[in-house]
């Protein structure tokens, strides 16, 4: 099993284990601490001796403080670090030594609840992504040795043919060998409408088959399929911290020792210097430690980021870490590659124009007849269009390719050619005057023109073009609405083609005839002229520009290894409109983080003033502290909304 597969298996097992509330040890210990605290409180309110209730309070402190107390000692001994856990441990012990065992037990119980809630909340925000593992079936119907046998999905090997019955989920990534159906890809790509699938189309693990049976040839093992790779990437992303989170953690590492030192000063200086009451100032120091502990401040960012990453992945956008969420919020310019990004990346027939009163169906049949045995992309596009229109290729033989020019085949003893205008004019010496006007018009629209004819004359032409994605114009408009100042297209294609597509999509600026190194330098120039740039490409020939941009965005994350490896963000369903969604989500994340930091700072400031002024009791400080923590957690979880 590969690293991705092993990691994914561990993730799934851990997610299943922790998904039940009462199997989380922190929650169990917090509940036990609460039960012991309740018994102690009831005993203290009765006529029972104080030492009996104190035993239950000490037990509540020991049970509830086990996890965070152990973490405090480990940080202090092995990392030489004073953390929030140590502050809380010191405060609880100080309260108990001062005779306020009830208050110490309350502090430990409430803090253990907040610790358990924080861990459980982070786990729940990951669960929507981890739940993808449950979408894949446990067994698959695999055809081996002429027989179809059900085997565990882990036993599927690359090259195996497995059968997906109507209504079943696809066991692993593969290519359809036979059958046709509509497949619901929403769980993996975020695509809301089922996608029609035909032979040679790709299907992904976890997607749900519609009404037709499919035979699929596996291209990935279960451990390495799309779902496994997505979960592995999201797990890595959630461990990747943004700049603001790293700052807050660094701040906490400095702030916590200062709080502890000040607490010691508060406890010692007034009694030693001014003769004040030891009990009063020891309790104020304890309250100060609780009040000044920056728990809400420290958890405000990771909770929000984890929720944001999970929500983005659930909606078909993979963001590879917290720093990239922050970077997305800064983007002011979006630069697109053309081929495979704003277009589908494969030619399609746009026009069929007959000559000499010939019917367009006959022109298309002749073109398809000549191209029937060719593997050239233009030939495949013509054959695909003919099939869609119900036109059968003309009956021909002696097919022959003309490298760099076209193809030729024989029908009724006559050679019929399909090729560029240059083939007819220069190689065959055939006049193209009858089609000259149509050739010029179609080429001015950025289309590739293919002529069909014989040495005696042109019989028609076919125009082809890499088709613009159906929602590309809407995506550009959505980016403008999202506050992007400039949308730019960088393409290696010719200028007429680039100008036509830019005008069609509402793109602000375009640059044609660009090599990879030109795109890289243009990204730098756009950054200096307009602000931070996000570059959107296919993750291969655009790699230099993707790396240079503040955020590199790859198309086609589902099933494309290179896209997942090279980009900071991947659009899983090739849906450009998801980019505007990602920008809006990132900016919303920054707003929520800012609100949480401000709230945390205000609460800590007020509690510190109250603690030093003797306005707060320990229970009041503990309660206010934990309430602020829960408020911050709830605020961060707003990012779970799509």
Secondary-structure-derived class:
alpha+beta
Q: State the major sheet.
A: 7 strands, mixed
Spatial extent as radius of gyration: 33 Å
Approximate shape: elongated
Strand order of the largest sheet: 10-22-21-20-11-18-19
Relative strand content: 15-25%
Number of helices: 24
Low-pLDDT windows of residues: 1-19
Helix content range: 40-55%
Mean pLDDT: 83
Give the end-to-end Cα distance, rounded to a whole number of Å.
34 Å
Per DSSP E runs of 2 or more residues, the count of β-strands stands at 22
Describe this structure in words.
This protein is of the alpha+beta class and 642 residues long. 54% of the residues lie in helices and 18% in strands. It is built from 24 helices and 22 strands. It has a 7-stranded mixed sheet with strand order 10-22-21-20-11-18-19, with helices on both faces. Strands 2-1-3-9-4-7 form a 6-stranded antiparallel sheet, with no helix packed on it. Helix 19 links the parallel strand 18 and strand 19. Helix 2 (25-45) runs antiparallel to helix 6, helix 5 packs antiparallel against helix 10 (278-292) and helix 9 packs antiparallel against helix 11 (295-314). The longest helix is centred in the C-terminal third of the chain and has 36 residues, at 577-612. The relative contact order is 0.10. Residues 1-19 have low confidence and may be disordered.
How is this fold's topology laid out?
Layout: H1 3-18, H2 25-45, H3 50-64, H4 66-78, H5 84-97, H6 101-130, E1 139-144, E2 147-152, E3 161-164, E4 174-178, E5 181-184, H7 186-189, E6 195-197, E7 202-203, E8 208-209, E9 214-218, H8 226-239, H9 243-274, H10 278-292, H11 295-314, E10 317-319, H12 322-328, E11 333-337, H13 338-342, E12 343-354, H14 360-371, H15 377-388, E13 397-402, E14 406-411, E15 414-419, H16 421-427, H17 436-444, E16 448-454, E17 457-468, H18 472-481, E18 486-490, H19 495-505, E19 509-511, H20 516-530, E20 533-537, H21 543-548, E21 551-555, H22 561-566, E22 569-571, H23 577-612, H24 618-636
Parallel strand pairs: 11-18, 11-20, 18-19, 20-21, 21-22
Antiparallel strand pairs: 1-2, 1-3, 3-9, 4-7, 4-9, 5-6, 5-8, 10-22, 12-17, 13-14, 14-15, 15-16, 16-17
